[in-house]
Amino acid sequence: MAARKAKSTKLFVLDTNVLMHDPTSLYRFEEHDVYLPMVTLEELDNHKKGMSEVARNARQASRFLDEIVSGKESEIAYGVALKGASKSLAQGNLFLQTEAVSRELPVQLPVGKADNQILGVVIHLVHQFPKRQVILVTKDINMRIKARALGLAAEDYFNDQVLEDTDLLYTGTREIDQSFWEKNGRDLESWQDGGRIHYRIRGADCSGLLLNQMIFQEGGDKPFLAIVKEVNGKTARLESIKDYSHPKNAIWGITARNREQNFALNLLMNHDIDFVTLLGQAGTGKTLLTLAAGLMMTLEEKRYSEIIMTRVTVPVGEDIGFLPGTEEEKMAPWMGALEDNLDVLNQTDNESGDWGRAATRDLIRSRIKIKSLNFMRGRTFLNKFLIIDEAQNLTPKQMKTLITRAGPGTKVVCLGNIAQIDTPYLTEGSSGLTYVVDRFKGWAHSGHITLQRGERSRLADHAAEVL
After folding, report:
1. CB 415 within 8 A of CB 287
2. Which stretches make up the PIN domain (predicted)?
């Protein structure tokens, strides 16, 4: 095997969790070879039963393997080419373990454990092909540590990472200064239409702007705040935004307390925008602003028939239990944030007294439906305001499943904080929330804002800073 291969191509040994995380990982190693130990196939078989995401991925990985190997049994010992099955995405070969490994494991590692058997295979391959780079690929941090302690090369599986550094993630805003106007504002046109001021600018910086990006310039009595409405080569059109920090524009009694909240409310209340993502630390107001906008557009403007709220019940995709109660009652323990925010929104109605507030609360509750993610497949939501809370815990595949539920007239809002991921094997770079923020930027009917400042309380702000 080594003789026929150039020294530059590597041999990647895949752990089971890589295949269960991304079944297409078999095709993601370009010109390099992929090696599957027999233990990996055994573990795939053990995990294939059930309705969870992991079981579905295990079954899909088995189907891919069957596709690759079918009719090529004689080639297994020498490597089965991946080019055909991957539609030329991968140029390397797939090797399956066909012989018992004779190499002794270090005494301190128990032989029965599957992870240690895979490490034994890697040690065997390193000795068998001394001139080739043999690398273990696993999502398990402890296994990578063990491999490195034994002097073996080990890596995480990075192909599902949308961005290597989440600091580069699109924030939805851009600060400009006087030099921006000097470079791009020579042929500036401005006019008023529908109560908004429009600006047409021309210059080299215009091509770097994205649709629905928020532009701001500090300074003076009133900062300049606008949204990008058109980008055409070196020409762009900006439109002034509504000031939701002013009490006369309050949404369900809520006003924006900072610039990013103002931007967020502009996106949430914009009827041309079907998909909004809000990122931010705890206490930045993501859920409160979204609920306020949802109630305004559902109860006052009658634009949506109801608000549907869902969130990941980690462990993800597992059953929500056989306890007595409806779907909503079972989801109630996960929906504390909803109740807290409804309390705030209900207090804004001071004039109606206790009876009026109680009636309003009942009306609001009748229009908000809580759904479990587990029953979303195959559904279509018409004229709904769909809120996906804690969206950082979703995988890109789950995120796609949810967003494609949206039918005509539905608005989808994803909320989350990528610094708080509870799902195993999901990182900031591979979270479904990072994925949609990156993929949707610049689409005419989507908007994104990263909320910066906490507005919960001075205690919460100080705790977030110092603890």
Report:
1. yes
2. 10-145
Please state the φ and ψ torsions of residue 386, each to the nearest 5 degrees.
Answer: -95, 120
249-466: CATH superfamily:
P-loop containing nucleotide triphosphate hydrolases (3.40.50.300)
Give yes or no for a contact between 380 and 407, defined as CB atoms under 8 angstroms apart. yes
Q: How far apart are the C-alpha atoms of 63 and 175, rounded to whole Å?
A: 49
User: Can you tell me the distance from the alpha carbon of 100 to that of 130, in angstroms, rounded to the nearest whole number?
Assistant: 19
* Domain ranges (residues) in the chain: 11-155, 170-240, 249-466
Whether 306 and 299 have beta carbons less than 8 Å apart is answered as no
**DSSP-H helix ranges across 232-323:** 259-268, 286-295
At 2 the pLDDT is 44
User: How, if at all, do strands 196-202 and 189-193 pair?
Assistant: antiparallel
Instruction: Give CA–CA dist 259/225, Å, rounded.
Output: 9
Q: What is the pTM of this model?
A: 0.75
* Element of type H or E holding 34: strand 33-36
Integer Cα distance of 434 and 276 in angstroms: 13
Q: What is the pLDDT of residue 53?
A: 75
Q: How many other C-beta atoms lie within 10 A of the C-beta of residue 465? A: 8
**Calpha distance 309→296 (Å, rounded):** 16
